[in-house]
Each structure stands twice: as structure tokens, then as C-alpha cells.
Amino acid sequence: MLETTVDAVMAELAELDDPKMREANEVRGDDHGVNLSKLRAVAKRLKTQQDLACGLWATDDTAARLLALLICRPKAFESGELDAMLRQARAPKVHDWLVNYVVKKSPHAEQLRVAWTADPDPLVASAGWALTTERVAKRPEGLDLSGLLDTIEAEMKDAPDRLQWAMNHTLAQIGIEHGEHRARAIDIGERLEVLKDYPTPRNCTSPFAPIWINEMVSRRGA
Fold it and tell me: What global pTM score does this model have?
């Protein structure tokens, strides 16, 4: 029964696949052509179905995996399952949704954060830093913020792109949320110049940490 259901959903996703959208997504490393609004509409109709989500994930199809992440039950996964899923999630959108929609809601999030941050695979490590950014903003108690800044200062400049992006987000979040570390966070950003020249659309905030920090602090009136 599950296989038939998976097959039916896969057929629906195939119908929704747009070659032009696929071409645009592939430039960003995401090999699917399904409009995300339409994908979310499918998820809304299917509602939460953990077994179906697992079946869709097992297809190794990017659109199916994105849908799986929308209909799964995050707390149903064991830590080992989430670790395996992250290592399988090479498409950037799948990686991001897995971390943000599933792992952050898992009771294993902190255990995985610690393990992933120290992982030699930069894509896995980037997930650990994404979870660290979440803690910096929402649950900083027990975090060694000075130690995090030490690591960022030593490693971010030469880190691979996605890991560098995640570390930079942590740097900015520390500067935004924690006034006692703000000056140092800005100084690190200014010296390393990571993402300083990143093309930023009008009315958007630059990801260059000093600009990002100052802009967000200014908005809050801090």
C-alpha cells in the first residue's frame, strides 16, 4: 500500500515538474523543477504522514525529499536517522529544510549540534553551526560565546562556502543578540572581510557581519 502511495505522489510531482524552473534551480545545486508553493499545497493536502515521508525520502528524489520534510513527524526520528539523512542531503534546499523544519524540532537537536559542529565534513559541520546560531538567538545559556568567536576568527576565512556562510551567520547573531560581544564580533567581521562584497539586492541587508549586526541592532533601537 505504501509503495502505491509513494508511486502516486511521485507521479504527481512529475506532473508538477517545470523544466525552466529545474534549470534555474540546478544553478543553485537543487535538482528539481517543482514550484515550492505548489509543493507546499501538496503537503497541506497530504497532512502529516510519517510512513509516507520515509518512503518519499527513500526515493532519493529532491522534490520528493522536500515534500517528505513537510509531511514528516520531526520528533519521530532517532538521532542516528537524522544523522544519516543529513549526510544523504546534498541538495542545498533539502539540507536547509532538514535542519530548519525537522532537526530544530527534534529532542536530539543539541546532541547533533555538538557532534555535527566537530564533523570533518564541511556540509555536516555547516548544519552544526546552523543549530548553534539558533541557540545563540534563543537558548544561549551554557554556550561559550567567546570560544565560538575564537573558532570563527581562526577558521571562517578559509572555510568552504556553505560552512563559511553558516559560521558567518553565527558571528552576526552573536553580535546582534549579545551586546557584550558585539564589538569583538564586528571587529572579526571587519578583519576577515567574509562576504564583504556579496551582491545584495536593494532593500535587503548585506550578509557582511559588521553591516548585518549594525543594521539589526539599529532596527531594534538597542
Answer: 0.93
